[in-house]
Amino acid sequence: MMKSLASQAERSMTGVPIQLIRKELLVSASEGGDTLDRLPVYTLTFEIPSGSEFTGRAQPFEDVRIDMGEVVKMVIPNYKPKSYSMSALRASEHEFDLTIKMYPNGRASGHLNRLQIGDTTHAFGMRNLTRVRNPGSFFGGIAYGVGITEILPVARAELEKGDGSSTKVVVLWAGRTRMDLFWNDQIKEMEETWGKERFEIVYMFSREERYANLTRIRNPGSFFGGIAYGVGITEILPVARAELEKGDSTKVVVLWAGRTRMDLFWKDQIKEMEERYGKERFEIVYIFSREEEEVEEERVLYGRINKDVLRDVFETRLLGCEGLTQEDARFLVIGTKPMMRMTEGLLGDIGYPFPPHALFV
After folding, report:
1. For 301-324, how does the pLDDT look when each residue is reduced to its tens digit (9 = 90+)?
2. Which pTM was predicted?
3. Distance (Å, whole) CA 258 – CA 288
4. Which is deepest, 47, 127, 202, 257, by most CB within 10 Å?
């Protein structure tokens, strides 16, 4: 008995081994002159081990109360345990998510970032014995940057409880630019599930200069070309979907530039769009700048965007559409400001100058 209690106490301090089963990139680090201007954000999915017992404030992972702000303690080698909020708990599937911004030379995030699929690390859930939900029917969540990974799950819990905890939930998400956003699908799903009457999210950007004018007008044209650098796809793809759904564009082509295939995400959404609209209306082309093995594949290019790439991706498809001419082409470029200026200049060089061929004016 004494040995069992000692074993439980030891687990409370050192945690139990948990295995990394998935790792998804949500936000890519910025490229170019200021590579540390935007740090990468990953969702790490860990398997919940069975049969673990703890003492004191330590608790099993499946008992962690996200809605009460309880955390997971990740045991960092040669360092103290580090607190992280779960971004999702799927107890029935025996797994949970941590969504983390990876800092250069970060002792805790660096350890987690180095984990490969199948690797294990130690952790334990931490019970909050003093926090009580303060009664009130309006919940306002304010998230700075990656703080949304704690605010949004709490907001969802407030809406899901069904006990009248919050009849209205409003989240304010403060970031530098649209390039720092992620979880677009989850937010859209929450908006559709609860409607504006119960849930709203407001964004505030501190460094957004381009496209900050919310009165921008859609420039008429039946061909849309979207060019996304890295996580810029999180703005380009929703615009592409809207163009297809509204019928404003009869043909939509997206060029997504990344470093390697490891930077890709939203594969299910892209596949669904390809199946729904078909190649006649929607195509996506990938170009990788740092892929070690160049395998010849349809709609996959290697290198960097230049005038020849833009002609090959957009002009050949535009002129292949019956009844469309250069005058019908409209473009939107999302990336760092230098990348956007460079690409818009290249489009002008091949006959699509901005603003006449910009999607928004």
Report:
1. 999 999 999 999 999 999 999 899
2. 0.56
3. 5
4. 257
